[in-house]
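For anyone still unconvinced, we reproduce a single protein record, the chain in one-letter code, the fold tokenised, and leave readers to judge:
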Amino acid sequence: MIPVKHIDPEDLPLYAMQLLSPEETAEITLHLQHSAEARRVLAEIQGDLAALAHTAEMHSPPALARQRLMKHVAREKKPVPIDRFAPVATYAPRESTLLDDEPVKKSAAARVLPWVGWAVAAGLAVEASSLYQQRQSLRTTVTSQSTQLAKLSTDAELSKNVLEAIQDPSAVRFSLTATGAKAPPEGRAAYLADKGSLVFIASNLEPLEPYKTYELWLVPADNHDPIPAGIFKPDIHGSATVVLPTLPKGVQAKAFAVSIEQDGGTSAPTKGAVVLQGLAT
């Protein structure tokens, strides 16, 4: 019968990484068939290597590095004393352990290897945290820029609507003058019925009492009730404007008028309070 040769425990990591010569590999393979303890230690080593493979990018070692590792292992290997082998007349398979003759001493590689995976994992955690902070910063910047862009778009749309109401050839323009007086107050309105856009400019208006206000009215062409188009008070020069008030779209205007109402305005013009009115020109 063939005796089972004792192996150096430090060869098991090299066996797991397939770095031994064919002869050494064959010897360890034979030993593993008859040693449950050796198989257990090899399984732990293979588990550590598998965990490391999932946490770090693997590369084939350069030929020079492999040669240096083999030389280092060769220097560390110790000759096995002859008296460790007990001659036997017949071969009887038995369970042996790596610790039958002497305690297993871990090499530098065996001591360091289990910590490599933790070091790689810690590095990945730090990098992930940095990437998360960068992503949050970029998200804040994008949100701020999006808000500014939305405001600029709104302002641009407002300016476009004002220019359309003033310059569009299809806009109906009105000239409002004072009634029953020498008519120094004056008002002009540019109106787009299909869009409900209105720009009104008044000048030379009389100052009002603190509890009074001017109110602009759209008089529909279908003789419906006047529609409130905004309240305003003139400045010290008697000038005032009403720009793009909220009006229903598609209402054709017969005229525009201005009345003096109580502060806050009313839903219908007060009788006898109209001071400016005008038809389309």
Remarks:
- Residues 209 and 263 are 9 Å apart (CA to CA).
- The beta strands are 172-178, 186-192, 197-203, 212-220, 227-232, 240-243, 253-262, 274-279.
